[in-house]
């Protein structure tokens, strides 16, 4: 490395040369310093670990036990769902934040098969979660993403899905339709996980913004 | 030093061009107008967009040459009233293939959008003077109709074309897919794009024998066609071949 | 000008960077590396800087809130002067960056530059590619429009396929039970802090190693890499037939980087910003989500995978692919660098490029997806409407109203999931058509329960008219035979 300075400023020590002037210390002193540095490193390690555990807990915050996100949600009056038809219904997800905006809303398909018997399908395609659309004329749900299609009862008709549409558990309370919902259904997160454990003691939340989304106006 | 000269002038020119284009309003660049606002699908009230997305499939571009009724037919536009259009778009027309489009009937359109379609049709396809001062048969059937009389009228007014093998309307399959309103609409307003005359019966500038049809005659023809309906329409083999 | 020199000297005495910088820029490189083939790495770096700058400028306005992100982009696009241009620069910069990084990687592979002693440079590069793709995906999420929302849904659905931890993984990824504000904020942190921080650090190390290990010499057939002799060979090459890196090779880097920046700016000015598409309202179901350009190939793959292969493929293929890339310099760390002597490498590169191109091309018109509006929006071509009998014309209406058109094209319009039906009557007889409509099959749903007999009959009558004028439709020979030669058949039946 060459010194680029032809005319060093006066009264300024040349730091580079000063650096190289450090002489070797007594080996015993060095070993004590190394030991102290080891202590310092250990201390940092322990404290770091102690701090990291809460961070992991913080990052795992969204993970809850199965079904903890679910509750009974009212989709509103049964009258919105004529017998024999399949209608779009929307509700506000019970677990939401003030800054969620319209993403707090969720849609689902309600099929009234007659005599207070329903099928409530998740909007999400069982393949990769895209929104399926109901076509009453051909009695099919079609997915716009990868071409999944389902029959009126939610069973797979064609395309890449490996199963039928996800179905929410429902019950009729005071001529209102309630569904057990709260999380985006995927292959490992069932639409209504509580139903498998026979858990019917979920809190009831009545926050359907407009009830049946296809019945406005 | 040629290179240096070129790069120097080149870069100054580039820089100058760039700053000039920004000063002169880069917001006029073609990219600016490509940043469109995507409307919510339920907020679209532009007739052309709504018609193209929802109606053109069956009723054809510009309301003609489609598989279903020609909406741009001025006679049809003059004959049909707003309330009927509104009701048919909203609730569909079972048992024909016309689906219900209003959200209240399980469709995708809001009431405002249905209104926009009705108003848009009236503007796009004006009906002024379509009747030429004549009074067409009413849009609602009135009085008693007589199938036997209808058959006679059919023979005079319709059979000339409809007895051709490719023009059969007496086919029970066809009749199962249309209702009385479809038949009445077709007989009264016609399909000018397909050469089917309206109730005045003008084909190639000549009034055909038996025309114009009056209200009674239209009702009779429909009654006659109704008498031809089958209990098992559209079965692939006729009952004879099944023995 | 004396004061300028004094100031410089005053600063340099304190910073003392002149020596290392001079070392770095004046180090000799083999003469033939001063090539236009060697400009992509520096261009990627320039684009990274562009992304950092434009990203910071966008962050001044952008609001990472589920409720407001979309509106803040609208304000950028329409209310702030040249806000649209900055968004366009950032969006096109991202496209160019992914493209240039891929080209850079292909070139390094093609030139055997990953071989000894540059194995670690390559490995860092693989991670930098993953981070670049991560930036592209998270950036698409920040747009927080419908494509972004449902793209997250696809991501969550893929994560849910991981065995055992799939369910918690989805919730960690989404920051809660559903795609919402919490999802956006975590992707914001990834896009703005985590990945760029790592990417910049990796870039520093990557460049450092390029300087220390030298720019890869132009590969010559018959000059294989040998661990024992390579360092000395390279040293001799660089010193005996070398030039200083600056300006000998660097001027091409500079010119190309400038050209790339200009290309980004032109694309931004002409084509404008990306979206946002419609607002992220999951109750709007009239949407056709699509990923950004560089993920289109994946979109195609996901459509063509058979259902029973999907989960294994999704979980194993990426791991395998990355492992192969990481293992490459160890497996092939020595030997020939020249493409003249590496036919397998050339074919692999060609295969990857062609597959990628094909899958991307397919995803631009998604032949596997129903066209959701075709039934009501795609007109039956007039030539198919005229000269039909009334029943056949009703069949055409049935064809539209029962959404057949969503999957079957007529006159080039409509879905491509099923075959186009313009000449279907030449392929299927009436009976075959009826069977296909009623029972489905071959990935077509069965329509037997949603069509009445007259609807089926009218539809099939319409379909039997779909043949070219001079070419008759297919007929069932045995049916004609049965009609003309019925007596013997009947005799046997009795």
Automatic annotation (TrEMBL), chain A:
Residues 185-205 have a biased composition (Polar residues). GO terms for molecular function: 2 iron, 2 sulfur cluster binding; metal ion binding. InterPro entries: Rieske_2Fe-2S, Rieske_2Fe-2S_sf, Rieske_Fe-S_prot. Residues 1-23, 183-205 are annotated as: Disordered. The keyword Ribosomal protein does not apply. The chain crosses the membrane at residues 34-60. This is Rieske Fe-S protein. The lineage of its organism: Bacteria, Pseudomonadati, Acidobacteriota, Terriglobia, Terriglobales.
Automatic annotation (TrEMBL), chain B:
The keyword Heme applies. Gene3D superfamilies: Cytochrome c-like domain. Residues 140-151 have a biased composition (Polar residues). Residues 130-151 are annotated as: Disordered. Pfam families: Cytochrom_C, Cytochrome_CBB3. Keywords: Heme, Iron, Metal-binding, Signal. This is Cytochrome c oxidase cbb3-type subunit 3/ubiquinol-cytochrome c reductase cytochrome c subunit. It comes from Silvibacterium bohemicum. The lineage of its organism: Bacteria, Pseudomonadati, Acidobacteriota, Terriglobia, Terriglobales.
TrEMBL record, chain C:
InterPro entries: Cyt_b/b6_C_sf (IPR036150), Cyt_b/b6_N (IPR005797), Cyt_c-like_dom (IPR009056), Cyt_c-like_dom_sf (IPR036909), Cytb/b6-like_sf (IPR027387), Di-haem_cyt_TM (IPR016174). GO terms for cellular component: membrane. Residues 470-494 are annotated as: Disordered. Pfam families: Cytochrome_B, Cytochrome_CBB3. The chain crosses the membrane at residues 36-63, 92-113, 120-142, 162-180, 187-211, 254-275, 313-332, 344-363. Residues 7-219 form the Cytochrome b/b6 N-terminal region profile domain. This is Ubiquinol-cytochrome c reductase cytochrome b subunit. It comes from Silvibacterium bohemicum.
């Amino acid at each position: 490395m060459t010194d680029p300075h032809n005319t060093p400023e006066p009264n300024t020590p040349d730091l580079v040369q000063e650096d190289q002037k450090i002489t070797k210390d007594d080996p015993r002193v060095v070993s004590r310093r190394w030991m102290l540095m080891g202590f310092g490193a250990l201390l940092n390690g322990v404290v770091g670990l102690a701090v990291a555990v809460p961070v992991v807990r913080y990052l795992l915050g969204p993970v809850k036990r199965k079904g903890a996100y679910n509750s009974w949600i009212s989709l509103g009056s049964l009258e919105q769902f004529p017998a024999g038809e399949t209608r779009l219904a929307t509700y506000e997800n019970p677990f939401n934040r003030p800054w969620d905006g319209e993403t707090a809303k969720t849609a689902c398909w309600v099929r009234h098969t007659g005599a207070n018997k329903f099928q409530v399908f998740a909007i999400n395609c069982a393949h990769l979660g895209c929104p399926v659309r109901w076509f009453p004329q051909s009695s099919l749900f079609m997915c716009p993403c990868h071409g999944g299609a389902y029959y009126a009862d939610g069973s797979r008709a064609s395309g890449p899905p490996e199963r039928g549409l996800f179905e929410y558990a429902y019950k009729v309370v005071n001529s209102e339709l309630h569904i057990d919902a709260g999380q985006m259904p995927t292959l490992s997160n069932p639409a209504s996980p509580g139903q498998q454990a026979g858990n019917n003691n979920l809190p009831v939340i009545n926050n359907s913004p407009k009830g049946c989304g296809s019945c406005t106006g | 030093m040629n290179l240096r000269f070129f790069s120097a002038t080149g870069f100054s020119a580039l820089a100058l061009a760039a700053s000039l284009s920004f000063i002169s309003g880069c917001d006029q660049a073609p990219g600016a107008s490509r940043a469109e606002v995507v409307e919510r699908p339920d907020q679209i009230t532009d007739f052309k967009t709504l018609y193209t997305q929802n109606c053109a499939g069956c009723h054809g571009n510009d309301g003609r040459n489609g598989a279903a009724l020609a909406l741009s037919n001025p006679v049809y536009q003059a004959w049909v009233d707003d309330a009927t259009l509104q009701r048919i778009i909203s609730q569909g027309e079972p048992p024909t293939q016309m689906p219900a489009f209003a959200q209240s009937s399980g469709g995708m359109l809001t009431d405002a959008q249905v209104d926009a379609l009705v108003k848009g049709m009236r503007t796009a396809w004006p009906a002024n003077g379509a009747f030429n001062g004549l009074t067409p048969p009413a849009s609602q059937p009135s009085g008693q109709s007589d199938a036997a009389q209808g058959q006679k009228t059919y023979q005079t007014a319709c059979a000339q074309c409809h007895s051709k093998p490719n023009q059969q309307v007496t086919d029970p399959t066809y009749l199962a897919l249309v209702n009385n309103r479809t038949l009445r609409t077709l007989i009264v307003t016609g399909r000018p794009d397909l050469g089917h005359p309206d109730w005045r019966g003008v084909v190639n500038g000549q009034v055909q024998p038996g025309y114009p049809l009056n209200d009674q005659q239209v009702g009779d023809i429909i009654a006659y066609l109704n008498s031809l309906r089958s209990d098992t329409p559209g079965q692939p083999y006729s009952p004879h071949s099944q023995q | 000008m004396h004061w300028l020199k004094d100031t410089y000297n005053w600063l340099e005495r304190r910073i003392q960077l002149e020596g290392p910088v001079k070392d770095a820029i004046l180090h000799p490189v083999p003469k033939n590396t001063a090539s236009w083939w060697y400009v992509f790495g520096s261009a990627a770096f320039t684009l990274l800087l562009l992304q950092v700058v434009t990203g910071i400028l966008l962050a001044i306005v952008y609001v990472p809130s589920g409720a407001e992100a979309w509106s803040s982009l609208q304000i950028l696009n329409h209310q702030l002067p040249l806000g649209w241009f900055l968004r366009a620069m950032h969006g096109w910069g991202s496209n160019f960056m992914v493209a240039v990084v891929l080209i850079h990687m292909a070139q390094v592979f093609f030139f055997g530059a990953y071989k000894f002693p540059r194995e670690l440079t390559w490995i860092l590069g693989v991670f930098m590619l993953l981070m670049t793709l991560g930036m592209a995906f998270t950036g698409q999420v920040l747009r927080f429009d419908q494509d972004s929302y449902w793209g997250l849904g696809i991501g969550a659905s893929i994560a849910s396929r991981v065995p055992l931890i799939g369910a918690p993984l989805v919730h960690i990824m989404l920051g809660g039970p559903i795609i919402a504000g919490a999802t956006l904020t975590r992707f914001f942190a990834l896009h703005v802090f985590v990945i760029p921080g790592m990417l910049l650090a990796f870039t520093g190390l990557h460049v450092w190693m390029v300087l220390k290990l030298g720019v890869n010499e132009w590969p010559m057939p018959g000059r294989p890499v040998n661990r024992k002799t390579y360092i000395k060979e390279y040293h001799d090459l660089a010193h005996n037939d070398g030039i200083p890196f600056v300006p000998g090779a660097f001027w091409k880097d500079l010119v190309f980087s400038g050209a790339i920046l200009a290309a980004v700016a032109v694309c931004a000015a002409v084509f404008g910003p990306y979206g946002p598409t419609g607002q992220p309202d999951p109750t709007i179901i009239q949407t056709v989500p699509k990923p950004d350009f560089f993920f289109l190939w994946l979109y195609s793959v996901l459509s063509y995978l058979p259902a029973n292969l999907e989960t294994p493929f999704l979980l194993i293929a990426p791991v395998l692919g990355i492992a192969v890339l990481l293992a490459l310099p160890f497996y092939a760390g020595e030997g020939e660098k020249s493409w003249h002597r590496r036919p397998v490498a050339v074919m692999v590169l060609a295969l990857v490029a062609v597959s990628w191109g094909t899958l991307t091309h397919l995803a631009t018109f998604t032949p596997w997806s129903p066209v959701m509006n075709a039934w009501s929006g795609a007109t039956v071509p007039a030539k198919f409407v005229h000269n039909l009998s009334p029943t056949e014309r009703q069949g055409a209406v049935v064809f539209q109203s029962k959404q057949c058109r969503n999957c079957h094209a007529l006159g080039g319009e409509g879905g491509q999931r099923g075959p186009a039906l313009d000449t279907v009557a030449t392929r299927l007889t009436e009976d075959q058509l009826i069977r296909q409509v009623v029972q489905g099959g071959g990935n077509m749903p069965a329509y037997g329960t949603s069509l009445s007999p007259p609807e089926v009959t009218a539809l099939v009558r319409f379909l039997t008219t779909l043949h070219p004028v001079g070419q008759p439709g297919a007929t069932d020979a045995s049916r004609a035979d049965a009609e003309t030669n019925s007596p013997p058949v009947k005799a046997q039946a009795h």
